[in-house]
Design a protein that fits this description.
about 200 residues, alpha/beta, two-stranded antiparallel ribbon, 8 helices, 7 strands, globular
Length: about 200
């Protein structure tokens, strides 16, 4: 499927989002072969460096698995983009900044980072947990989130490209943060903070 996609003349790059525990050596070798045809970007959903949080959100793998996969991806010459979520249950701002700082010190440095603020959506386990223990969630208001992002972005290596700063869940399902549904207002706030 990947080879069919990358061989299409209108395709300029292949971006694959996956989990670190789903990339064995055979798959990395295949992606490296495809990377010789056209650029391949591999997006890894790290979300947090804190294993306690990873267990709570059912991420499914410890930080060591991410590190091992990262080393193998970069050794194969592949571009890597890492996803972080800010506002996960039980995490403080300091915890979240530790995750950003970790990416800032990671070697080789990430080619890209995608940040998202936690979206609490109706019908999810996270929504149930939020209803029972809202105090466990860091629900930023828009201005505070923009200020927080300034700090997080400043921790990244200069060569790391920020691909995304926020998330926006389906409006019909969104419980929090409600402000994230107003994309124009969010973009204006990020611009005011020099993030765009």
């Amino acid at each position: 499927m990947f080879r069919t996609a990358i061989e299409q003349p209108e395709i300029v790059a292949l971006s694959i989002g996956t989990r670190p525990d789903c990339l064995d050596n055979r798959m990395i070798q295949l992606l490296a072969e495809l990377n010789r045809i056209k650029p391949v970007w591999v997006e890894l959903g790290l979300q947090t460096i804190h294993d306690k949080t990873a267990v709570r959100i059912n991420r499914g793998y410890p930080l060591e698995v991410f590190l091992d996969t990262w080393e193998r991806l970069k050794a194969a010459g592949l571009a890597g983009i890492v996803h972080l979520i800010f506002g996960l249950p039980g995490e403080t701002e300091e915890d979240m900044l530790e995750s950003a700082a970790f990416l800032g010190k990671l070697q080789p440095a990430p080619d890209g980072v995608k940040f998202a603020n936690l979206q609490i959506l109706r019908g999810t386990k996270t929504a149930d947990e939020f209803a029972e223990h809202p105090e466990d969630f860091q629900c930023f208001n828009m201005e505070d989130y923009a200020c927080f992002l300034e700090r997080a972005v400043s921790l990244l290596a200069p060569q790391t490209v920020v691909h995304r700063l926020t998330g926006d869940g389906p409006k019909a399902l969104l419980i929090e943060p409600k402000w994230s549904a107003d994309k124009k207002r969010v973009l204006n706030c990020l611009k005011a903070h020099g993030l765009l």
